[in-house]
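This section describes the prediction task in plain terms. A model, or a person checking by hand, is given the sequence of a single protein chain and must write out its three-dimensional structure as a string of tokens. No templates, partner chains or ligands are provided. The sample shown here is typical of the held-out split.
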Amino acid sequence: MLAPLSAPGCGVPKLASCLQIADFSGRAPSFDTPQEAHAYYEPAVAIHDTNEAALAATSLGLIVLLQGRPTSALRWLRESAALLDEYDPLGSRPWPLAFAVQAAAQAGDAAGASSALGRAEAVARSGAPLQESNICLGRAWLACVEGALSEAHHLAREAAAIAERRGQLASAAMALHDLARMGDRERAAPLLSKVLPRVEGGLFRAFGLHADALLSRDAPALEACAAGFLELGAMLYAAEATAAAAVAYTEAGRESSAHRAAARAVSLRARCDGAVTPLLSTSSSLGGLTRREREIAALAASGLSSAEIAMRLVLSVRTVDNHLHHVYGKLGVRHREDLVEVFAQSE
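The expected answer:
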């Protein structure tokens, strides 16, 4: 049995509304706090009620993921999946596995995300249509952590579309907010604005404000979003909004404000279990790259050849090499091996 969670920050009960995300399951207990879910989990384990313990562990994992602690969330989601491996009368196993993919990817664990995705897809093949959107969003996060942002954006939009078709509006809102977090703010903000009027909850309203502020590159609005996320107990979202504010201040030539926001983002990120997401990875060394250049450089840094990058992004090898040539010039490096160090410093 996992150890009890430490007490969360203020405002965490407001995250309870976000367990609407269980709109694709309908079977999970709706807990207001991690402590309440843990109090439900422990007795279930004690009486060997595997199914109830697994559902409580999944809820704990989801709450902790929303709080912005992906590594801790992954522990709970793996616990739930292990319990359901023993006994799963309701076919709930795809639920924790789908979120485990997202948690592992946001923790920077590509191998763990890939492993969880393989298991989720294998289980889903036996019949789990209500998990389709969350498994698709897991694929998006895996592509994201692997550096394939164009693929990640496509998959996140697909996940949102699947969820909306099934009436899973909370899941659709989550996917579209994740799309903005992955860097596709131009598509995410207008799509999210169409979904949010049909979803209730403070966190969902914050999603809309965050997407709009990212789209307008409004630094003060991004800092206000960060404050709102902190009130809700959503630390990772707050860190991301603050990091984006630092970039927006830099773009506006407000260096002092940029340095202050960047320092604040580092402080917030330190409380997020070592999370690795696109908005947190922005840095002065990479800020001069276009989105496509950054994507290709990240894939090259991961060890892919130009031919492999071209195949993944549906480009010609010559186009990939031309982009890398521009990247080398902007970053002041000579070889793709140098990109590994540059990207390590940006995280």
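For orientation: Residues 50-67 form the longest helix (18 residues).
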